[in-house]
Amino acid sequence: MGDLLTLFLSTVLIDNIILSHFLGMCPFMGVSKNRSSALGMGFAVLFVIVGASLLSYALYYLALVPLGLEYLELITFILVIACFVQFTELFLKKFIPSLYKSLGIFLPLITTNCAVLYVALDNITNSYDLAHTIVNSVGVSVGFMLILYIFSTIRERLDASTPLKSFVGNPLALITAGLMALAFSGLAGLI
Amino acid sequence: MKRAFYLAFFLAVVAAIAGGALTFANDMTKDQIAANKAATEKANLEIIYPGSDFEKLDFTDDTGMIVSVYKANEGYVYQMSTDGFGGKGSIEFMIGFGTDGKISGYTVLSSGETQGIGSKVAEADFVSSVTGKDIGASIDIISGASVSSRAVIKGIDAATAHYEANYK
Amino acid sequence: MEEKKPSFLQSLILENPVFSLYLGICSILGVSTSLDNAVGMAALVFLVLLFSNIVVSLIRKITPGEIRIPVYIVIIATLVSVAEMFIKAYMPSLYASMGSFISLVVVNCIILGRAEACASKNDVLTSIKDACVMGAGYFVAIFTISVIRQFLSTGGWSFANPLTLKTIFDIKIIPEQFTIGLFGKPVGAFVTFGLLAALFAGYKQNHEAKLAQAAKEAKAAAAAAAKEAK
Amino acid sequence: MRQVLGLLGVLGTLGSLYAVLYYFNKKTPEPEGCEEIQNSCSGCGITSCGRHPSHMSTEE
Questions:
Q1: Which residue of C has its CA nearest to B109?
Q2: What global pTM score does this model have?
Q3: What is this model's ipTM?
């Protein structure tokens, strides 16, 4: 039980998907303009990462390994993630329009998101069992949402400030992310 | 509705062709990759027991730190991965337990630790402080690199416990 | 003064895919710790981009409009998988240092972006040219960052031939204890990329200011000439 | 032989599933109150994002 907790803590705080793996930068730069869209993005990513990595995990150990097709893992995982996102969008559009209103815009962006694919592959390369896979997926998405939310609060102030003309927008956001990475790397001694 | 079937068929054919290309590429590179893997494995083990032959053992492990276990002529070699300052699985090292009850060798395979601080776990004085010690004897932490050295020691203790439980 | 076609170098800086559109940042930040990684990743992205553009433009007539993007994703995934197998087989050290970033090239925004924006509409030749321009832009971005980051974090540059692992050059300028280790860590990646992006934005802004200024002058001169002619 | 069948099975079903879902997703109209979320996606240059104009073209 102990190492599940350390795995969770390390994926959320220390080995954070954005700050130490640089993944999910496209939504991180594009969507973090305000807090509500950051939260919406966070929940959409949480739902997709956990769903997609469980599907990929099942497909890998039930279909690819018995058939000896491990080398197909990259293309299978991409198709699984894409199918899952399309299915979710379709399901929300048809049955839960209210949820679609808040998450709908973010779902198509996640189909080709580096973070989702990384988690699906990471569960396999580390040969995690089911419990570790779930904890890893939830941990990564919580870490993503946490950093995205904190960053959106900072970014609201950044947009209000008047930096050098050439720093406006993304360059300043990147440097702020660098400072956040510095702060979070201080937690490394936690585990 | 008919359009949907045509689209489904089209993408299925594209995916099948992709699969075929991947199988072809896989067959071409399969043995080279296996050869690479065996070569690096052997090279790592040779550091602990030069010239000995090794037999890979399967093992049960709940610490999650033991990567693989080998039986050599004069002892056992554990390949370990522990979480240091550089995050999850940032330090990978090999440790050899001799049948004479002493640690026969210790070497770091890869370390994501900070340059000049955590990387001391791979340097000569820490290595010599570990090699030659009796199995189970306590190893002191490097002052100034406590996170990394404590992580390595945690790994060594896990290997020792597993060794004493199974092969002593 | 007619708009002179921006020179190749200028278009490399002005429309650099990485610094102006922020495409493909994930791989650049992750891999730009050493020259070998940077060159390896740039070559990989260029080759995948080239072949994907070729295949996409070859089959652009028969791909049904609705599922263009899914077909491109499958093609790119296959190309990256094949590339990953060859790197794992023949360049194991490069594979070890680049690790999981190789398979993440599949979702690299540049490749899919160019496949959709350019290759699906033009013939093979323009797609190849576009792949070269974009590949060069990517190489310029990742190489500059890795030059800065490797210099600051290890005090010099070193480059080894990935196939034979023979170090081609290894220069140490700053002595060991004055190197800034932070630049090897994620902090350095973000800060270096941010500063360079600001530099590019600054250059672009005053370039546009110059053009606007020149255009204004041209209009004023034309107005004066018209007044004289009356 | 089993491998080839497995390959065709896995990739074939996944491919056709993706095409069908993608097609129906494009076909189902957005729920009534959702038209205006288009412009809140702040001009991302990422063409793979479903909101990007590249996805809007229907039959050829």
A1: C96
A2: 0.82
A3: 0.80
